[in-house]
Amino acid sequence: MNLVLLSGGSGKRLWPLSNNARSKQFLKVLENKNGELQSMVQRVWGQLENVGLADSAVIATSKSQVDMIQSQLSHDVPIIIEPLRRDTFPAIALASVYLYSVEGIRLDEVIAVLPVDPYVEDRFFHRVNDLEKTVLASGADLALIGVEPTYPSAKYGYIVPASQSNESDYLRVSHFIEKPAEEKAAKLIEQGALWNCGVFAFKLDYMISLLKEKGLPIQYDELLKQYERLPKISFDYEVVEKAQRIVMLPYDGDWKDLGTWNTLTEEMATSQIGKGVISGDCENTHLINELDIPVTVLGVSNAIVAVSPDGILVSDKAASPRIKELVDDFDQRPMYEERRWGWYRVLDYTKLEDGREVLTKRIGVAAGKNLSYQMHHHRSEIWTIIKGEGEFAFNGEIRHVRPGDVLEIPVGAKHGIKAITDLEFIEVQTGTKLIEEDIIRIYMTWEGVEENCLSTSK
């Protein structure tokens, strides 16, 4: 069986830690068995490795999340990159076509699809593994996992079985109910309905045949070119609700969607991350602070205080799910991002009266990693090395750099840097278009830089 993990979303419900570049699955607020902070995606990938499923898994995601995935997992993790965000049906279609036409997966093999960030026990993934034999034994179009509810939640969708009992391990599905009121949810549970956790499986032939019927390409390169033709719709609406034969496997263990501050903080091992103080009379209050200034929380209970370069949130936990409604209209660049080479944090942004912009960043490059060798048409930069040592490539020459060095990069100059040890520098950009599109990458690897630049001593 092959696994497709879906990694998407902008995570506005966990603002200000999450933004358009750093979705909820990348927030390092959970603890692993060694007491180290880890993200949801790191936790899930570790669980897949524990149960022997990681080797058959690929991650389907957008271009904006590739660096984050590689930074937190590995550069070797297989990734299928959507050319643009189109919802879950196009993402699953692209992944299916990739497995079929690039990886050569047979049409009778089973594909399982799941979110990249469920909060579950390892045995949940053993249940995912059971989907393969369920699809083959049942002859169904789709096999889903239904979680036995612990309370009548209005936040989740429900899968209603055709009958409450079955001689086999699976149940036939009657229909779906999306996020009912609590009173209706309680009645559905009495009828044997289970939570829909967004995990399902199908034979690869089912998806490939569906794409053929729609007149869509089943070759990966061609589907990439025609990706905009795919309807911008969820897999649930486009496929699941139209399928004729659906079964589900019940799962009776713990399962959570940590998509809001109140659910996420329930699973945090500590009430405080980062600088600050929570007074002793605060009950059920969490502080997460990503800045270098202390934050004091005094006499406030049942609250979340989250501080990041993107903003500050002080909220009653019960009210925190409403944050998405308030920040949906915020239009600002992400102030913190993880990249394949390290991270950066925006320190200041100013637009001058003459139209010029000034952007100041603190940039960290991990030892052995490098920024691409690049140039800009619309901005100059000044880099001040503040930590570590590295190699700086500038207009065809490479030289050693260390703390205190100030590197001036005029408009049009070719430049890049590699960290020998963990390296940090302050970057001040000045120009008329401080945008990602003004990065002209010449060499991505440092091997390419060394082959085409001369080494010189400072």
UniProtKB/TrEMBL annotation:
Q: Which domain of life is it from?
A: Bacteria
Does the record's keyword annotation contain Nucleotidyltransferase? yes
Annotated GO molecular function terms are: mannose-1-phosphate guanylyltransferase (GTP) activity
Q: Where are the coiled-coil regions?
A: none
Q: Which UniProt keywords apply?
A: Nucleotidyltransferase, Transferase
What Enzyme Commission number does this protein have?
2.7.7.13
Q: Name one Pfam family in it.
A: MannoseP_isomer
| Name this polypeptide is given | Mannose-1-phosphate guanylyltransferase
InterPro entries attached here? Man6P_isomerase-2_C, Mannose-6P_isomerase_type2, NTP_transferase_dom, Nucleotide-diphossugar_trans, RmlC-like_jellyroll, RmlC_Cupin_sf
Q: Tell me where in this chain the Nucleotidyl transferase domain is found.
A: 4-269
- What range(s) does the Mannose-6-phosphate isomerase type II C-terminal domain occupy? 339-442
Which CDD domains does this UniProt record tie to the protein? cupin_PMI_typeII_C
